[in-house]
Amino acid sequence: MNWIIGFFEILLNMGATVMVPLFILVIALCTGVRPAQAVKAGITTGACIIGATLIANLLGGNLFSVGQMIAESNGFSAPVTDVGWQASSALASVSRSGLYAVPLCVALNLVMLLTKTTRTLNLDWWNCWQAAFMGAMVETLTGQAVYGLITTGAAMAIILVVADNTAPRTEKYLGLTGISLTHGFSASFGPIAALFNWLVDKIPGAKKFSFSLKNLKKILGYAADPVPLAAVAGLAWGLISDRSFQASAQLAVSMAAVMLLLPKAVQILIESLQPVTDGVKSFVEKKLKMQGKLYLGMSGTLGLGDPTVLLTAMILTPLCVYLAALLPGSRLIPGSDLVMIPYVMITVVAMARGDLLRSLAGGLLSMTAMLLCGAGMAELFTQAAQLSGAQEYASGQLVSNLCNGSSPLTWVLVHVNLYGVAGVVLLVVATVALLVWNRNRITGGVKLYVRQTKTIRASHIEAVETEPEELPPVPELPQPKGLRRLMGGKKDPASSKPKKEKPLAKSGEGKEKAGDTSKTQETPEASPSVSDSSQPKEP
Questions:
Q1: Residues 6+ apart with CB under 8 A from 231
Q2: Terminal CA-CA length for the chain
Q3: Strands of the sheet with 179-181, listed across from one edge
Q4: Per-residue pLDDT, 279
């Protein structure tokens, strides 16, 4: 077992910028992609991940500075200190759940693929620490490592199911073809966003109304382009946070640069992965005989390439500071973890079908749930931080963060385990039921958010086509005499033959009897009912 853990540690130490391109290369070669295209896809993927991460860090740094200046200028304070997402990663890595998290999540993913309970092949192993953090919280709560491992597995299964069911919308509205997002923090807000949009759709006329950037650009032209809108948002927040005009202008240009460059980096990555996704699709259909589409699970950073995600994040991230200060029950003022607000908006925008107004409203609702969950997890987070032995948490100051200390999924899993063995059994049963539900959707060929008519399998079509051939032949019945009059004077082609002996009738050599209904003249041997005296004589 130690060598397995050591193998995964070597891969994780490489980092996502090396590990993901390596997986892309191996998968491409195994699915029949040409070696040159496979190498190109792997190298381009690594380069684009590095570029997208650098640009995303620039965005996060700008948002953090704005939020910090807003909190300082308004005198906002709270009893819980935001210690950033790195603290969650560190707590997960030192726990017993984190020690086995990656092998457990990889094995679970393979089992779910074989049992058709997921259609996502997760390549983002590095972010398995988010599921491990949820297990570490349960381990701290109960003192049982087994409970922590069960929670880690349940969390990963839920993340994969959410990735499956949000992939059609991220593919359609965010442009991530053949990719699902297995980012645990982002997936936590999928059910909230889905419920919110389901309720909005119940409003008469709400489904037909769409206020997207694309529609807005048709009205306002370049003024509604994402790049100038990002510049305006940066300038406005710079002035609101008491910056000088020069500093605000620099912030505006920086935001515009993020809006311009990050979508292009993600677009290049998607184009480089196209041969790999095509190869995977062909391999799944021809070799594995699997129905439906197989998605490649990637980091949530790719979802930041959508302009609507970036614009709504630029608007809502500073508002999160005001919301945290004014919301009753909130005890955490976001600081260094404000960089995670864009990851919340990925799922929210996808579920809102790219609608700008829905995304802003759904984002506010998601941030409200996030802040309340973070307030309820502060004591347990602080206890886990102190047990880790880190000196910076020895003072007893309450600490927490947004990712994943304020995740709704973490809050649910922890509170289920408050009931001990009964809670663990309930968690296992609920997770299995969720997997069965997801399998029914996959094997039934039903898309989650697209209405479609019931499909007929190819085997059923063949059965319908071959069914008439197995029926006995129907005998031909003679046509009634009065049927010709009803048919407009036309002869029944099945009961009459062309008139062949009419030229003989014209020469006076023979005539039909008045009562004969047949229009053909047959030889005496073929017509024994006609007397020999009535037949024409040979010349």
A1: 252, 253, 255, 256
A2: 110
A3: 120-122, 295-298, 179-181
A4: 83
